[in-house]
């Protein structure tokens, strides 16, 4: 669909990384003409394939802004709203949904949001191979796939190994913000985050919904069904 690096690659890391259970399934569903146009024009400047081959110079990529990593941004509406509300913070959005990547880039262009970049591929490889220690000002994981069936729980993103890795990439004082409307996953998130010695909970349990997290269409649908949304706010310790 996007030859010669003019858009996100179908399998950016290829076969040079180990096989393991993944928390996501690549979704290269139908891309609208508007999304495809945004990807072809903006990807070479604002896009990044997670190939695991080199470290990212975040200072150069974001013109010196502190950078928050958002894993799984869907169609990007909430990401764009947060970027507009906080132009002095860069947002590196990581996802594998091609229409969402194109939609977010289009939103960034239309709204003059120069503090958004889009990464395509596996967030684990991004954290482990391509981001320097203590390089992130924050981590956001909003409404990740809950993998509700017991046999699929091992696919959930928020696991001890993931949080331990992510903590090494967070600068002292960096904020970890997770949100889910799936009660059992919220309980797992709280347990895993609380067990990570590099992090401290800002609240005695779940956090109130912060003003800076916009209400998404997905969240609204869940609330209409009676779902309870849980936010978790943890901070990277200074030592």
Tell me what you see in this structure.
The structure is a single chain. The chain is of the alpha/beta class and 239 residues long. It is built from eight helices and eight strands; from the N terminus they run αβαβαβαβαβαβαβαβ. It has helices at 33-46, 58-61, 77-85, 98-110, 123-130, 160-168, 183-195, 217-224; strands at residues 47-49, 67-71, 90-95, 116-120, 136-142, 170-180, 199-201, 230-236. The chain has an eight-stranded mixed β-sheet with strand order 1-4-3-2-5-6-8-7, with helices on both faces. Helix 1 crosses helix 4 (98-110). The longest helix has 14 residues, at 33-46. The protein is globular. The model has no long low-confidence stretch (mean pLDDT 92).
């Amino acid at each position: 669909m996007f030859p010669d690096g003019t858009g996100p690659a179908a399998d950016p890391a290829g076969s040079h990384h180990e096989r393991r259970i993944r928390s996501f399934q690549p979704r290269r569903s139908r891309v609208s003409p508007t999304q495809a146009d945004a990807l072809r024009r903006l990807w070479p400047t604002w896009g990044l394939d997670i190939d695991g081959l080199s470290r990212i110079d975040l200072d150069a990529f974001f013109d010196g802004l502190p950078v928050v990593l958002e894993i799984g941004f869907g169609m990007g509406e909430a990401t764009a709203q947060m970027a507009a509300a906080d132009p002095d913070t860069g947002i590196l959005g990581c996802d594998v949904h091609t229409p969402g990547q194109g939609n977010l880039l289009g939103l960034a262009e239309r709204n003059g949001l120069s503090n958004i970049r889009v990464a395509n591929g596996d967030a684990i490889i991004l954290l482990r191979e391509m981001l320097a220690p203590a390089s992130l000002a924050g981590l956001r994981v909003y409404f990740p796939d809950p993998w509700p069936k017991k046999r699929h729980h091992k696919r959930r993103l928020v696991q001890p190994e993931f949080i331990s890795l992510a903590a090494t990439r967070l600068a002292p004082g960096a904020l970890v913000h997770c949100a889910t409307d799936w009660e059992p996953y919220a309980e797992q998130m709280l347990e895993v985050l609380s067990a990570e010695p590099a992090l401290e909970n800002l609240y005695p349990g779940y956090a109130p919904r912060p003003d800076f997290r916009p209400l998404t269409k997905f969240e609204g649908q869940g609330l209409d069904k009676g779902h309870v949304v849980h936010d978790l706010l943890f901070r990277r310790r200074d030592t």
